[in-house]
Predict the structure.
Amino acid sequence: MQQIVATVSAAWRVVQYMRIGSAILLLLSLTGASAWAQDQTATTQSKVKKQKKGRSPGGDVGSGAGDVGKGVGKGAGSAAKGVGEGAADLVTLHPVGAAESVGKGAGYAGKDVAVGTGKGGGKIVKGIGRGIKHLF
């Protein structure tokens, strides 16, 4: 009788170890499968991302020319505003205010033209350099 009980208890322990082992294997396989699926998703998403297309060399030159024109336009506007305010000050008999307004307008005009020319010139040079690079 004791031998039968010992055999049954040993068999019961083997069944419990098998259950525990199969549960561990199941958990490991699920964890591995989910990690593998996440890895596949990450590589799929990285393949889908597209790089932004930069501006072409001709686009850089065109944009630079636009910046130069914009600077000249703003400068002309500032000069006109200063002259207009100066004329209004002269009509109202404020000669010092008139000179101040015209000078201020000229100063802002110079600043606007310089900024536009600097930015635009930089873009133009960059575009020309990139265009030459494509030739070689």
About this structure: The radius of gyration is 40 Å. DSSP finds three helices and no strands in the chain. Residues 57-135 form one domain. Helices lie at 2-48, 57-91, 95-135.
